[in-house]
Design goal:
This protein has about 260 residues and is α/β, with parallel strands linked by helices. It folds into 2 domains: about 10-40 and about 160-255, Rossmann fold; about 40-160, Rossmann fold (3-Layer(aba) Sandwich). The protein has 11 helices and 11 strands. The protein has a 6-stranded mixed β-sheet. β5 (about 80-85), α4 (about 90-95) and β6 (about 105) form a beta-alpha-beta unit. α1 (about 20-30) packs across α11 (about 240-250) and α3 (about 70-75) runs parallel beside α4 (about 90-95). The longest helix is centred in the middle third of the chain and has 12 residues, at about 165-175. It starts with 9 loop residues before the first strand and ends in an 8-residue tail after the last helix.
């Protein structure tokens, strides 16, 4: 019987708790061990605050959702606008909620690819509502404004760094020192920045030489800028299957073997 692809590999999963299960299950189905260590916590904004902000906005022609979290906490605020989704996971969340996705990227998973779609090409005179967390990249807004649109943000949740106890951090360090953690998965630059800030010093030093797997080229750039020779792997997409494929492709590198 062939050995499972990730047998003997421990993977640190830094996604928020409620979004980590698919990736953790996929890792473990291939024989790996997944260690949950979220570096971002999603906190919904108070509904009365969001409703107050909505009343100050113009009715949108297009509502863009940047993430599944934006869908979960803000889908009702699309009003009667055409709906656009950044990435297939966000699109799937919209469709699971019974809504139609009018504009989505044919290829790719990020804002750059969504901006290539014809539905966002001729937006002069339109009002576009970007539904997101408290902060984020400005690329969508800046580009759509250049195309003549009025762009307004609606923040429906905040991303905060979790507060880990000394005992939780000590447990993580013991696991890492024992060789149990061989790969780290990171989904965003913010996740990486929070991880570096949260980790005990020994783990932070070890991060420099632990393979980092991500679906975002921006994360790899940030890691290389910080750590120079950091081992990294770019997954084809954020789905659990693509992340596991990228981890598997690391081969012996994941266990520190030549």
């Amino acid at each position: 019987m062939a050995e499972a692809a990730l047998a003997g590999i421990g993977v640190l999963v830094t996604r928020p708790w409620h979004q980590a299960s698919d990736l953790m299950s996929a890792i473990e189905s291939e024989g790996g061990t997944a260690y949950a260590f979220p570096t971002i916590e999603i906190v919904p904004r108070a509904s009365e605050i969001v409703r107050t902000e909505v009343r100050s906005l113009q009715p949108p022609d297009i509502a863009i959702f940047v993430s599944p979290n934006a869908v979960q906490h803000g889908l009702s605020h699309a009003d009667s606008a055409a709906i656009a989704a950044v990435g297939p996971t966000t699109a799937a969340a919209i469709e699971s909620a019974g809504k139609t996705v009018d504009i989505r990227s044919a290829t790719g998973y990020d804002s750059e690819h969504l901006l290539l779609e014809s539905g966002l090409a001729n937006v002069a005179g339109m009002t576009i509502r970007i539904i997101r967390g408290g902060t984020g990249r400005e690329l969508l807004a800046d580009t759509l404004k250049e195309r003549g649109a009025t762009v307004e943000y609606l923040s429906v949740y905040d991303r905060v760094a979790p507060d880990y106890s000394a005992d939780e951090l000590s447990t993580l360090e013991i696991q890492w020192r024992s060789g149990a953690i061989n790969v780290v998965t990171i989904m965003s630059v913010e996740s990486l920045t929070n991880l570096i800030a949260i980790l005990p010093q020994w783990c932070s030093d070890q991060l420099r030489q632990t393979p980092l797997v991500t679906p975002a080229a921006r994360v790899i750039k940030e890691a290389v800028d910080r750590f120079h020779n950091a081992p990294t792997a770019l997954a084809r997409g954020p789905q659990a299957s693509e992340m596991v494929r990228a981890i598997t492709d690391l081969g012996p590198i994941a266990t520190g073997q030549p």
